[in-house]
Amino acid sequence: MPHFLETLLGICPPTQRLWIAYSGGLDSHLLLYALAQLRPPFELRAIHIHHGLHAQADNWAKHCQEVCQVFKIACEVKRVKVRLAPRESLEANARSARYDAIGQILAPDDVVLTAQHADDQAETLLLQLLRGAGVAGLAAMPPISRLAKGWLVRPLLAYTRAQLEDYARQANLHWIEDSSNADTRFARNFLRHEIIPLLEQRWPRVSLMLSRSARHQAEADELLQILAQEDLQTGGTPSQLFLPALSRLKPVRQRNVLRFWIKKLGLPLPSTVQLQHIFSDIVTAKADRQPVVRWRGGEIRRYRDFLFAMPNLPPVPNQNLIWSFPETLPLPLGELRAVQGGRLKLKSGTSLQVRFRQGGEILNGRAVKKLLQTAGLPPWQRPFIPLIYFEDTLIAIPNIGVADEFVTQAGGWDIQWNKENNDK
């Protein structure tokens, strides 16, 4: 058996189910074969992603199922729809669709193995360099990472494509050859067929050396994240960054903690230019300003001495909603819930109206505008806050108050506005 089989599962987290991302090509076929020989003491399954981008896609899916049947490994074929859009990378969109589909099938602590190797790692590093990526991007593909509820493990990163092909030929394996892998219009294929062979003429071990550089970058990125976590603890919370504390840091640490914070919130990172606008347009703005910097999938705003990061806000609502109380009601921003144990006296089944601010609203003799300001509700949330009406009377505002005539001392309701973390 090839040497790599001895340590193939050594880096896997504990699991009861192991998936193999099986395309039918050389690398994943060798991985499937190796695991079929090992027969680990847990459930072994394969998943084949049908992208629908190649004329042979149906035949490839059928082939993978037949191979898995021979190895007595269950194989699930999952079809995905790859977004085709101008100025977007087909490779990147196919990769996103693929990992999204794999993530959907993973139960908690399932492990999926993919067959990327040292040459793939080298190509990824070069692509990131050409995109001007920072340390995190240059770390390329980690050996182990979380994917949805499970784990993504790449056990072959220490081996070159040539080594894997030697193993496969020794085992007399047969695999699918995807003709699109030779199409140098794709950036990765261009590097693979045109650039790396030229580099190998001068530096024969270039793929292994670039893979080593990626590991060094991964270590550097880990140190940066540790530093960012320390800075975040002294200058912010999971949902807010305190500007005076941020301003006391050197600019390089400000950028580091800002990127770390945005990523920790699950938002896509802004570009270098957008990051600079955050500092020039928001951080240095006067406290009474309400600046915003938006990018695809996220935006940052300022309120008083704090920064807030959030997904892109939806359009401001302009229509009233009917609420069959106390059912959960979806809103333009988040949802409305009613739970028992509050001060609102109201019968189940009551039909209510949910309106949004137009100006001039009054609750218990006080202007709603002033109530929202006193409560410290950020300005961008105020157009979205649901105002609860019964027969044209404003009776409640979540987290703000209840009209006096609808207050009870016991057995009432509490109306909650769940903003779905859009106030990050």
UniProtKB/TrEMBL annotation:
EC numbers for this chain? 6.3.4.19
CDD domains, sorted: TilS_N
Note whether tRNA processing occurs among the keywords: yes
- Reaction catalysed by this chain? cytidine(34) in tRNA(Ile2) + L-lysine + ATP = lysidine(34) in tRNA(Ile2) + AMP + diphosphate + H(+)
Matching Pfam families = ATP_bind_3, TilS, TilS_C
Domain Lysidine-tRNA(Ile) synthetase C-terminal: start-end pairs = 352-417
Q: Which GO terms describe its cellular component?
A: cytoplasm
**What are this entry's molecular-function GO terms?**
ATP binding; tRNA(Ile)-lysidine synthase activity
For this UniProt record, the keywords arranged alphabetically read as follows: ATP-binding, Cytoplasm, Ligase, Nucleotide-binding, tRNA processing
Residues binding ATP are: 23-28
Q: Which domain of life is it from?
A: Bacteria
Which family is it part of? Belongs to the tRNA(Ile)-lysidine synthase family.
Described purpose of this protein according to its UniProt entry: Ligates lysine onto the cytidine present at position 34 of the AUA codon-specific tRNA(Ile) that contains the anticodon CAU, in an ATP-dependent manner. Cytidine is converted to lysidine, thus changing the amino acid specificity of the tRNA from methionine to isoleucine.
- Domain notes, please? The N-terminal region contains the highly conserved SGGXDS motif, predicted to be a P-loop motif involved in ATP binding.
Q: What is this protein called?
A: tRNA(Ile)-lysidine synthase
Organism (species): Candidatus Thiomargarita nelsonii
